[in-house]
């Protein structure tokens, strides 16, 4: 088949980084370290705006099968994704299986009549999964937030900076499992930054106190 | 060899070889470069920056004002202190004579930073700091303990005892206890160098410097810890003070505590014939220890009463103690190093004290100055303590405590108590002290009394500053440069303030001290840059099609953080040739570019039209669904801020585009209005910049290509008119097409979810092969739009340009009651006919490409400029070669430009005046005949 | 690196925020009714006090929400944060 007739398929902006990520995981493991960096599967993403005190919220929660978190900087899980707090009237709804009921066309009618909005932002961001015992240490090299499990346990999230890229950081576990959403155009930069920062763990660990 | 058996904490079982000023020496692990040099009797290290006087090592740590060295191996680095460079095998260094020298090759070492959070940060792992850290750790706090030396323990000596044990045993126990806590981070070789608001402390960790050429490449060489602490405990110790006397800068003269430290820490006896000049008790320990190690020691105490315990300890080891005597000068041998001290009677002392005493080393102690820098950095007030003869922390700074010697507490029991309160371990009672006799300088020639040895600044320089009218220590500091060298006045600052006060006849406390500012120690730029260098200096943003651009040889340009293809050269083409070819393709056949970097904002809500009417100069609420309108946004000042297109997707739904560079600013600007001025408007804004990949497909044959690729599309002009949009699909993937033209040609913008961007781009390029489809970059885009007179906001505008200045009065609605900027259009300044207008400019020789930014002046028939100041008419904002016009052309902002169309002006260029004719700004297809194909 | 207390996200480093100038300078209800001088004053003139100053800030790298704050221009200390539209709170040492 030529390019002219090849069916359109989605590409992951971090596809070409996968060998480098895998090599990192291998090299760190060879030193006895535990760090896994990989592109997260692409998920349908919808930016949802609604008045948390208005009638749209229960309707949306019913459609998504999970409540919208109202506590700032937290997220809740759905069957195949997350509902992430982005602001007092804003959430990011992700769906790995691209469930139609979690997408813009289904959500907008639920909120539009109540002054809300729903926008397909699937291509806007890409996500990386970072996990392992060294995950928090790696993030500490570029993220100013206190990620200690006592301050940023599983279920928390933050829109902040990692290196010089804006990220939406989700704690999936207590200090050893993170999902990092980044604007697609910054994905290459962030991948390069993470790989460079993780160089630290590719060789023997330093003596205590270094 | 000055190494003494039985002393020091160095590993004598291993020998390190190093080279200094071309000579090979040996040392041991645990040595610094300074201790190893002193072990070999090397006393002259370099020469001073202004006077070229020989200089040696005056201290055992970062308070050395003179022992500067240039490192050559393992990597060139200038202006380090020999006393802080840990000795490594293969080290190559030399003394600094004048200035240091930067490496000429890039540093291959890694540098990074780490964000560290804690409840309690303790700076300094001396007895006070160690116990403060232990106390916090035992409370279950998250603790960070940093200390700049190789080992914890501060100034504890091997003979000190804590809790009935050798002090070092006690230190080891506390360190081991701290290591057992999960949430305690204890870092040695880490210097806290700046203290800022909200518990923020920067600390430089030297991670691999001590490993020399064995430093592993995967670890950062130095790391800046960005520590955020709820509470900061400063236990940074104190700096011993020198006394200014004539020729006090000679090699062989050092601080008394340094002489003792070289013996106790490094096993180096710095001299055999040692003179000690002191004004307080601490130097007695140095005298006794050096005498005990075999030196012949004479101690001159400025005080007429000497401390009984220490005097006995000294005389027991053979030290001669001379009370009421001060050092007034020194003598030197051929190498410039000290050979004798001249002494004289102290005030009230023995009038017969004046004599000359031979020595090879002179140890000096003028008392102790608390290292309160980290307290002063955050506006902590320092108060003068008469007993100390120094400033120490006074007043409170929320979240910061200062303990131990940094707080002016000089006795061990006091330090332990400040670190551990009631939990403090027991120590033997201190012998009774005789108060320090605060002495800034002794009688002698002020021009030879050095205050800041690093700056060659003397008491005479202070006098000169005062004679010039300076009265504040801050002014004296700047006039004399005292305290501005690498040591930031650690040793000189206090005596400079003291001497200034005395010369002014004021008290030191009344005069005050200079404010300490970060950094406490010099920090390499590499460490401050961390990972932000090379490819990671600034984020690089790329589109979904970037890999294709790279594979097809695009030459990129940086647009903000974006990498955008500038042009796609074919083999042998330069930029001009490639751009002319790309332009011709767009005007004659079909061409495609990656416009994905355009900012895109989704606008939803019942008041969306009303909102857009307020922020655009033209009407958006009247736009019909399915249609597209060009719009301009201004600020309150009426100046153009951004432009773009607006698609009406539904009654309550719009999609805006912004310029590539303006995306974040425009969204911020709109959110500002929405959230702060018009919160009642039911509108939501969402960035979809990266969600959509956008490809302008441009040229007379673009319709043909679109028909071919999207068979469901009715692309006829009637069904799909200019400035309208349609949704279609390809392989089930939604695609949005918009007839928008930034070139004047028939053109479409193809929009798709960016995940499909690369695939769709490849499909379009493959499908267009038989039409000669040509990928083009930003340079061609600029030429095409400039030929049509379309401005680029930010290139043809600079924040001082109104829509009217751009000749775009048509984009300013007269119907709307108000919109952002409208009121300013009525200001007289904005209706001045002499405002600069955007016009075209054609060099009359039809050959010269005028540079962007070139100034425009009146035509002068004689070909010369009028005398300066030459009246400026404006400047060139855009300038290109045009394939269509077959000549260079330019856009320019020219005063009263529209009224001058047809006139000729001059543009100074490469030493001559180039004549150019002012024209309208639309140079190609002014009647707009091409846009429908 | 100062911390600024976003009313929604809590304390974050200052580089996550953008400054928006003096607070409580409302857009005039009818700009056309103003003289040129009055309009010019609204567009170009702002206070510059030494001491507590009400300011607009936006948490640009976080929740993208605007809020107001009173900051002491002598020390940079944030004395209060409060929502857009709310009255300026009294602060210790402030002149409000
Ligand atoms: Zn926030």
From TrEMBL, chain A:
<protein>
    <submittedName>
        <fullName>Sarcosine oxidase subunit gamma</fullName>
    </submittedName>
</protein>
<dbReference type="InterPro" id="IPR007375">
    <property type="entry name" value="SoxG"/>
</dbReference>
<dbReference type="Pfam" id="PF04268">
    <property type="entry name" value="SoxG"/>
</dbReference>
<dbReference type="InterPro" id="IPR027266">
    <property type="entry name" value="TrmE/GcvT-like"/>
</dbReference>
TrEMBL record, chain B:
<comment type="similarity">
    <text>Belongs to the GcvT family.</text>
</comment>
<dbReference type="Pfam" id="PF08669">
    <property type="entry name" value="GCV_T_C"/>
</dbReference>
<dbReference type="InterPro" id="IPR041854">
    <property type="entry name" value="BFD-like_2Fe2S-bd_dom_sf"/>
</dbReference>
<feature type="domain" description="SoxA A3">
    <location>
        <begin position="448"/>
        <end position="531"/>
    </location>
</feature>
<feature type="domain" description="Aminomethyltransferase C-terminal">
    <location>
        <begin position="836"/>
        <end position="925"/>
    </location>
</feature>
<dbReference type="InterPro" id="IPR027266">
    <property type="entry name" value="TrmE/GcvT-like"/>
</dbReference>
<dbReference type="InterPro" id="IPR013977">
    <property type="entry name" value="GcvT_C"/>
</dbReference>
<keyword id="KW-0560">Oxidoreductase</keyword>
<feature type="domain" description="GCVT N-terminal">
    <location>
        <begin position="546"/>
        <end position="816"/>
    </location>
</feature>
<feature type="domain" description="FAD/NAD(P)-binding">
    <location>
        <begin position="119"/>
        <end position="375"/>
    </location>
</feature>
<dbReference type="Pfam" id="PF17806">
    <property type="entry name" value="SO_alpha_A3"/>
</dbReference>
<dbReference type="InterPro" id="IPR023753">
    <property type="entry name" value="FAD/NAD-binding_dom"/>
</dbReference>
<dbReference type="Pfam" id="PF07992">
    <property type="entry name" value="Pyr_redox_2"/>
</dbReference>
<dbReference type="InterPro" id="IPR036188">
    <property type="entry name" value="FAD/NAD-bd_sf"/>
</dbReference>
<dbReference type="InterPro" id="IPR041117">
    <property type="entry name" value="SoxA_A3"/>
</dbReference>
TrEMBL record, chain C:
<protein>
    <submittedName>
        <fullName>Sarcosine oxidase subunit delta</fullName>
    </submittedName>
</protein>
<dbReference type="GO" id="GO:0008115">
    <property type="term" value="F:sarcosine oxidase activity"/>
</dbReference>
<dbReference type="InterPro" id="IPR006279">
    <property type="entry name" value="SoxD"/>
</dbReference>
<dbReference type="InterPro" id="IPR038561">
    <property type="entry name" value="SoxD_sf"/>
</dbReference>
<dbReference type="GO" id="GO:0046653">
    <property type="term" value="P:tetrahydrofolate metabolic process"/>
</dbReference>
<dbReference type="Pfam" id="PF04267">
    <property type="entry name" value="SoxD"/>
</dbReference>
């Amino acid at each position: 088949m030529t390019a002219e007739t090849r069916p359109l398929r989605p590409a992951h902006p971090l596809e070409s980084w996968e060998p480098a990520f895998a090599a990192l995981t291998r090299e760190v493991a060879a030193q006895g370290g535990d760090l896994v960096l990989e592109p997260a599967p692409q998920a349908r993403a919808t930016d949802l705006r609604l008045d948390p005190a208005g009638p749209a919220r229960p309707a949306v929660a019913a459609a998504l099968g999970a409540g919208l978190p109202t506590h700032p900087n937290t997220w809740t899980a759905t069957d195949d994704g997350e509902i992430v707090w982005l602001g007092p009237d804003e959430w990011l709804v992700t769906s790995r299986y691209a469930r139609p009921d979690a997408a813009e066309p289904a959500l907008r009618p639920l909120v539009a009549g109540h002054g809300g909005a729903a926008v397909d932002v699937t291509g806007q961001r890409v996500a990386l999964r970072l996990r392992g015992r060294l995950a928090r240490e790696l993030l500490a090299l570029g993220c100013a937030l206190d990620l200690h499990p006592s301050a940023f346990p599983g279920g928390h999230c933050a829109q902040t900076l990692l290196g010089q890229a804006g990220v939406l950081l989700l704690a999936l576990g207590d200090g050893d499992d993170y999902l990092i959403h980044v604007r697609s155009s910054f994905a290459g930069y962030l991948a390069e930054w993470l790989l460079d920062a993780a160089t630290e763990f590719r060789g023997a660990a330093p003596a205590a106190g270094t | 060899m000055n190494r003494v058996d039985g002393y020091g904490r160095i590993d004598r079982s291993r020998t390190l070889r190093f080279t200094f000023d071309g000579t090979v020496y040996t040392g041991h692990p645990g040595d610094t470069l300074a201790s190893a040099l002193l072990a070999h009797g090397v006393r002259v290290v370099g020469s001073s920056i202004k006077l070229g006087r020989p200089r040696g090592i005056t201290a055992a740590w970062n308070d050395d004002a003179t022992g500067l060295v240039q490192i050559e191996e393992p990597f060139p680095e200038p202006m380090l202190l020999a006393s802080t460079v840990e000795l490594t095998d293969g080290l190559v260094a030399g003394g600094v004579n004048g200035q240091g020298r930067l490496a000429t090759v890039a540093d291959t070492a890694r540098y990074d930073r780490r964000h560290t959070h804690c409840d309690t940060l303790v700076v300094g792992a001396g007895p006070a700091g160690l116990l403060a850290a232990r106390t916090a750790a035992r409370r279950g706090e998250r603790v960070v303990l940093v200390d700049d030396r190789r080992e914890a323990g501060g100034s504890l000596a091997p003979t000190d005892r804590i809790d009935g044990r050798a002090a070092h045993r006690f230190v080891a126990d506390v360190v081991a206890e701290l290591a057992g806590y999960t949430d305690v981070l204890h870092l040695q070789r880490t210097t806290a160098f700046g203290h800022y608001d909200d518990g923020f402390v920067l600390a430089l960790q030297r991670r691999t410097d001590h490993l020399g050429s064995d430093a592993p490449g995967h670890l950062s060489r130095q790391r800046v810890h960005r520590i955020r602490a709820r509470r900061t405990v400063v236990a940074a110790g104190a700096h011993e003070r020198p006394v200014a006397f004539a020729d006090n800068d000679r090699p062989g003269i050092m601080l008394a505590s340094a002489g003792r430290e070289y013996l106790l820490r490094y096993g180096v006896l710095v001299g055999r014939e040692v003179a000690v000049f002191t004004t307080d008790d601490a130097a007695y320990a140095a005298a006794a220890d050096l005498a005990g190690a075999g030196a012949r020691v004479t101690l001159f105490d400025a005080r007429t009463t000497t401390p009984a315990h220490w005097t006995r300890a000294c005389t027991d080891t053979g030290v001669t103690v001379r009370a009421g005597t001060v050092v007034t000068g020194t003598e030197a041998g051929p190498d410039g190093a000290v050979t004798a001290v001249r002494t004289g009677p102290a005030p009230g002392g023995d009038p017969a004290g004046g004599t000359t005493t031979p020595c090879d080393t002179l140890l000096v102690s003028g008392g102790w100055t608390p290292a309160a820098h980290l307290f002063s950095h955050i506006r902590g007030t320092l108060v003068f303590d008469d007993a100390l003869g120094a400033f120490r922390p006074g007043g409170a700074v929320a979240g910061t405590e200062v303990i131990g010697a940094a707080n002016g507490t000089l006795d061990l029991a006091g330090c332990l108590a400040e670190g551990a309160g009631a939990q403090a371990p027991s120590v033997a009672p201190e012998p009774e002290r005789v108060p320090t006799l605060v002495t800034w300088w002794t009688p002698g020639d002020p021009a030879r009394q050095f205050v800041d040895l690093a700056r060659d600044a003397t008491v005479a320089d202070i006098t000169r500053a005062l004679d010039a009218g300076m009265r504040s220590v801050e002014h004296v500091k700047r006039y004399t440069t005292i305290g501005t060298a690498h040591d930031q006045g650690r040793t000189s600052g206090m005596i400079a303030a003291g001497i200034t006060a005395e010369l002014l006849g004021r008290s030191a406390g009344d005069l005050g001290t200079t404010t300490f500012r970060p950094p406490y120690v010099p920090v390499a730029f590499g460490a401050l840059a961390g990972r932000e260098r090379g490819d990671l200096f600034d984020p690089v943003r790329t589109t979904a099609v970037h890999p294709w651009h790279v594979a097809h040889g695009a030459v990129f340009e940086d647009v903000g953080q974006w990498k955008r293809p500038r042009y796609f050269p074919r083999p042998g083409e330069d930029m001009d040739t490639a751009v002319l070819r790309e332009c011709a393709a767009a005007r004659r056949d079909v061409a495609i570019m990656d416009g994905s970097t355009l900012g895109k904002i989704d606008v939803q809500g019942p008041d969306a039209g009303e909102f857009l009417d307020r922020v655009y100069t033209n009407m958006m609420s009247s736009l019909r669904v399915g249609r597209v309108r060009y719009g301009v946004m201004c600020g309150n000042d009426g100046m153009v801020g951004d432009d773009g297109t607006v698609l009406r997707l539904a009654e309550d739904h719009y999609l805006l585009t912004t310029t590539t560079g303006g995306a974040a600013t425009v969204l911020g600007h709109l959110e500002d209005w929405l959230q702060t001025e018009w919160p009642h408007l039911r509108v939501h804004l969402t960035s979809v910049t990266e969600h959509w990949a956008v490809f302008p497909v441009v040229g007379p044959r673009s319709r043909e290509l679109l028909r071919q690729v999207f068979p469901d599309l009715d692309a006829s002009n009637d069904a799909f008119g200019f400035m309208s949009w349609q949704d279609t699909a390809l392989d089930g993937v939604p695609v949005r097409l918009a007839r928008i033209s930034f070139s004047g040609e028939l053109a479409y913008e193809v929009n798709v979810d960016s995940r499909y961007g690369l695939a769709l781009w490849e499909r379009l390029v493959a499908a267009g092969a038989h039409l000669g489809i040509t990928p083009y970059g930003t340079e061609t885009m600029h030429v095409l739009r400039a030929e049509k007179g379309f401005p680029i906001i930010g290139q043809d505008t600079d924040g001082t340009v109104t829509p009217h200045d751009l000749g775009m009065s048509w984009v300013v609605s007269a119907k709307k009651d108000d919109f952002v900027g409208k009121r300013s259009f009525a200001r007289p300044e904005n209706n001045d006919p002499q405002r600069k207008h955007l016009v075209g400019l054609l060099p009359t020789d039809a050959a010269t490409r005028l540079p962007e930014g070139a100034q425009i002046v009146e035509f002068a028939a004689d070909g010369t400029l009028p005398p300066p100041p030459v009246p400026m008419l404006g400047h060139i904002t855009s300038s290109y070669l045009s394939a269509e016009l077959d000549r260079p052309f330019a856009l320019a902002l020219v005063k009263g430009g529209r009224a001058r169309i047809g006139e000729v002006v001059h543009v100074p260029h490469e030493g001559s005046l180039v004549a150019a004719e002012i024209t309208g700004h639309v140079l190609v297809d002014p009647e707009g005949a091409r846009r429908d194909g | 690196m100062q911390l600024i207390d976003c009313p929604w996200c809590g304390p974050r480093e200052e580089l996550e925020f953008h400054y928006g100038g003096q607070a409580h300078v409302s857009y005039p209800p009818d700009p056309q009714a103003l003289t040129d001088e009055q309009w010019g004053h609204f567009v170009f003139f702002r206070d510059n006090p030494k001491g507590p100053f009400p300011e607009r800030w936006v948490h640009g790298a976080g929740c993208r929400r605007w809020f107001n704050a009173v900051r002491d221009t002598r020390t940079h200390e944030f004395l209060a944060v409060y929502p857009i539209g709310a009255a300026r709170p009294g602060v210790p040492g402030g002149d409000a």
